């Protein structure tokens, strides 16, 4: 089932985001359909993605995102992602 994922990091920044993108690379990971990122409405950094499934999103977070976060020098636990089913996606 296609899902949307939101990661809202109140301690995130464009600088950290760019470091993570450098570590992860620019290619769309398997199972990923869309990626949107920018400052959150109350500060921090927000990422919204659309995935083929929660399992593929979770594998990406575990196998690529978490190691990139450590390599970028971030400390602490990453924010918990929020998932919800996608009824329609227009691009």
Kindly name the structural category: alpha+beta
**Helical stretch tally:** 2
CA radius of gyration is: 13 Å
What is the 3D form?
globular
CATH class: Alpha Beta
The biggest sheet amounts to: 4 strands, antiparallel
Strand order of the largest sheet: 2-3-1-4
Question: For the residues shown, what is the average pLDDT?
Answer: 91
Going by CATH, the architecture would be: 2-Layer Sandwich
Number of domains: 1
**Termini Cα gap:** 18 Å
**Secondary structure tally: strands:** 4
CATH topology: Alpha-Beta Plaits
Question: Helix and strand succession?
Answer: EHEEHE
Range of strand content: 25-35%
Low-confidence stretches: none
Share in helix:
25-40%
At a glance:
This protein is of the alpha+beta class. The chain has 2 helices and 4 strands.
Strand and helix map with partners:
Elements (H helix, E strand, L loop, with lengths): L2 E7 L4 H11 L7 E8 L5 E7 L2 H18 L10 E4 L6
Antiparallel strand pairs: 1-3, 1-4, 2-3
Helix pairs in contact: 1-2
Features:
Alpha-Beta Plaits, alpha+beta, 2 helices, 91 residues, 4-stranded antiparallel sheet
Explain this structure to me?
The protein has 91 residues and is of the alpha+beta class. The protein is 32% helix and 29% strand. It has a four-stranded antiparallel beta sheet with strand order 2-3-1-4. The two termini are 18 Å apart.
């Amino acid at each position: 089932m296609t899902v949307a994922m939101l990661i809202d990091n109140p301690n995130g920044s464009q600088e950290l985001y760019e470091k993570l993108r450098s570590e992860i690379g620019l290619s769309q990971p398997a199972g990923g359909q869309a990626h949107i990122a920018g400052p959150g409405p109350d500060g921090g950094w927000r990422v919204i993605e659309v995935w083929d499934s929660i399992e593929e999103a979770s594998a990406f977070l575990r196998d690529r995102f978490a190691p990139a976060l450590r390599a970028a020098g971030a400390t602490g636990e990453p924010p918990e992602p929020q998932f919800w089913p996608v009824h329609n996606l227009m691009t």
